[in-house]
Amino acid sequence: MKKFTIPCDFNGVTAPFNIYIGEPSPEKHPLQYQAAWLSRERGGTIPQEVMDSFAKLHEIAKENGVSFEELCVNALGTANGKTASGSGNDST
User: Fold this and answer.
1) Cβ neighbours, 10 Å, residue 80
2) In whole angstroms, how large is the CA radius of gyration of the chain?
3) CB under 8 Å, gap of 24 or more: what pairs does 74-78 form?
4) In what order do the strands lie in the sheet with 2-10?
5) Which residues contact 2 (CB under 8 A, 6 or more apart)?
6) Distance set, CA 36 to CA 28, 30, 42, 55, 92 (Å)
7) Rounded to two decimals, what is the model's pTM?
């Protein structure tokens, strides 16, 4: 399981929030349960563009038979403050 920090909206205030990525059910949105919990318990929302990005990565992972978790690390690692250099082996 990998942790990503994304900006979420809390009643008009943007604040960082940690989400956790593993291998989601093939028929579910990978952030479905975390987004519902965030809304219900904290009054926050994950931006639609973030939801769309993770949904697209999930589709790519399914189509290519690769790990969703690893695809997210490779695709989003740099944007999350990790370096994507050299061997591409970024173990966190």
Assistant:
1) 14
2) 14
3) 76/4
4) 13-21, 2-10, 44-45
5) 20, 21, 22, 69, 72, 73, 92
6) 13, 12, 10, 15, 27
7) 0.78
Owner of token pair 């009054």: 43
- Alpha helix stretches (DSSP H) within the chain: 32-37, 48-64, 68-76
Length of the chain: 92
Q: Are strands 44-45 and 13-21 parallel, antiparallel or unpaired?
A: unpaired
Place of tokens 């944007």: 79
Encoded tokens for 42: 């904290």
Structure tokens at 63: 């189509």
Kindly give the confidence (pLDDT) of every residue in the chain, 92 residues in length, as a single tens digit, with 9 standing for 90 and above: 999 999 999 999 999 999 999 999 989 999 999 999 999 999 999 999 999 999 999 999 999 999 999 999 998 874 444 433 333 334 43
